[in-house]
Amino acid sequence: MNVIELQNVSVRYREKRIRSLKEAVIRGFNIHAHDGFFYAMRDVSLEIHEGEAVGIVGPNGAGKSTLLRVAAGIIPPSAGVAISRGPVAPVLELGTGFEAELSGRENIFFNGALLGFSRAYMRSRADDIIAFSGIETFIDAPLRTYSSGMVARLAFAVATAVEAETILLDEILAVGDATFRRQCNERIERFVGSGATVVVVSHDLDSLESLCTRALWLAKGEVIADGDAFDVIARYKASVAERQQLRLERLPL
Amino acid sequence: MSSIPLIERRTVAGRPLRWADEARDIREHAGLLYELVHRDLTVRYKRSVLGFLWTMLHPLLLMLIFVVVFSTMFRARAPHYETYFLSAYVAWNFFAQTTVNAMASVAWNGPLMKRVRVPPSIFTLSIVISGLVNLLLSLIVLFTIIAATGAPIHATLWFLPVSLLIVGVFTFGVALALTAISTIFADVREMVQAGMPALMYLTPIIYPISIVPDRFRWLVRLNPLAYIVEIVRDPIYYGILPSPTTLKLAIMIAIGALTIGWMIFRHLAPRFHAHL
User: Looking at CA atoms only, how far is residue B268 from chain A in angstroms?
Assistant: First the structure.
């Protein structure tokens, strides 16, 4: 079964956006007359099957995060159809929907609700989350008193404590100290092992290689390569190295 | 793994929201709705010493000002002026606060909407619900004042929940439209905010409608808010039920506002993400 399906999906934005009614009136509501489009994704079709672990690589601005957002149903496609089946938990940025004035504990419930989980369910997970985040003593203090590392740990603990069947992770492997990063990787490995579907965007190619079975290489909103993780990542690495070489050669002496 | 029924979500380019989908989506996110209302109500007061009392102090202070300024002017036409003014003002304040807060809510929750998929109308709905809670709190203040000033308490109060429901539906409709438009055009929020006081003076809230000269009455009658405010004031202050004509008009206005508001919202919501 496909948990995520994209059919000819494009996401585009107008290069010049009218931000105010005043401007729209001045331009006589002819607001789309001379605008070009910027494509964040261009005609992408792909299927992700249940239980797959997919890594997404590509340079900045390639459309990796856009792809995750479309798959999660956050951004509607400008053309095409996006389908997801079953609960999808997007972990696109740590600290999403964290409220500075609420305590760590209250934030656990608030975040759980954002992902569609009930208070009762989150209560059953709370101890586990608090233990994993390692901030037991501060859990009832307002979040604004936390360090950014503490917020990140709590956020990751919440995001990954729930049992979603599909998890979308964006660049979060690079947060926190070495111990925390190891814990994160272990958790993701456990997800993969338990048969959950995991889609990870990361620049940490080595951990992608060990985590994923399949990789997608994106550039300028299009899929350049899609296949076995080792193959795709090796080709991506080669291309990065080549470009680096070119840049070095062009450097004035 | 899939023992729970599988939800399939399809996002098709260019398709506006559907009423049934959005309603189901909100039911599935009932927990989030609760958390949002809870956050609205608590965070707002968390760092102030007086906390929840602010909700009550606000109408009290305003009442003091308006009563001092206007009661001598209008007392002959509206005995127990405090009750006359406040019975309409609580409804007005709910409408004005809710629509302005709803417009701010998208900017506030923009970062959140970029990272989690939630039903887009849930923020507007949560603002309306927390507004209703605040309205109930200010009604407590109002009834305390009624008791303290010896104004009559009428049996027609049983009708008040019906009035509040109509006010709530009307406000939700207007808030949906304004939330959607102000997300696309950021300056609409300031325009509405600036227009609110003017709208208040066009509605018979601080003055009795009898002071309006006959030849201008039609202008007041054109203002939908006049009916919305009247159905709340009638059972509290006058001790009468709204006339069938007024009630019918108020219900039509409320349902009309919700229909138009939703139509605007459902077409604009798929474009929100580009403006957050």
Answer: 12
Q: Round to whole Å and give the CA distance between A199 and A202.
A: 10
Pairwise CA distance, residues A229 & A212, whole Å:
6
What is the ipTM score, two decimals? 0.82
Query: Which residue of A9, A50, A115, A143 is the best one to mutate when testing the B interface, meaning the one whose CB has the most B CBs within 10 A?
Result: A115
Tell me the whole-structure pTM to 2 decimals: 0.88
CB contact, 8 Å: B194 with chain A? Answer: no
By residue count, chain A amounts to 253
Q: Render pLDDT for A181-217 as a digit per residue (tens, 0 to 9).
A: 787 788 888 888 888 899 999 888 888 888 899 999 9
pLDDT category, B99, cuts 50, 70, 90? very high
Average the pLDDT over B138-143 and give the result: 88
CA A176/CA B32 separation, integer angstroms: 28
Domain assignments of chain B as residue spans, ordered by start: 19-275
SS3 (DSSP) at A49: strand
Asked if B121 contacts B269 with a C-beta cutoff of 8 angstroms, the reply is yes
B153 C-beta neighbours (distance < 10 Å), count: 13
> Quick one: CA dihedral B125, B18, A91, A221, positive or negative?
negative
Give how far B22 is from chain A: nearest CA, Å: 14
Judged by CB atoms closer than 8 Å, whether chains meet at A13 and B188 is answered as: no
Parallel, antiparallel, or unpaired for β A222-228 and A197-201?
Answer: unpaired
pLDDT 10s digits, A14-68: 877 777 888 878 776 665 556 678 899 999 999 999 989 999 999 988 999 899 9
- Tokens found for residue B217: 């009455």
Q: Is B51 helix (H, G, I), strand (E, B) or coil?
A: coil
Q: What is d(CA B100, CA B107) in angstroms, rounded to the nearest whole number?
A: 12
For B:77-136, CB contacts with A below 8 A are 111-118
d(CA B79, CA B238): 11
Q: Is A63 on the interface with B (CB under 8 A)?
A: no
Contacts of B136 (CB under 8 A, 6+ apart): none
Across all residues in chain B, what is the average pLDDT? Answer: 88
Backbone angles phi, psi at B273, to 5 degrees: -60, -30
Q: Does B13 touch chain A (CB under 8 A)?
A: yes
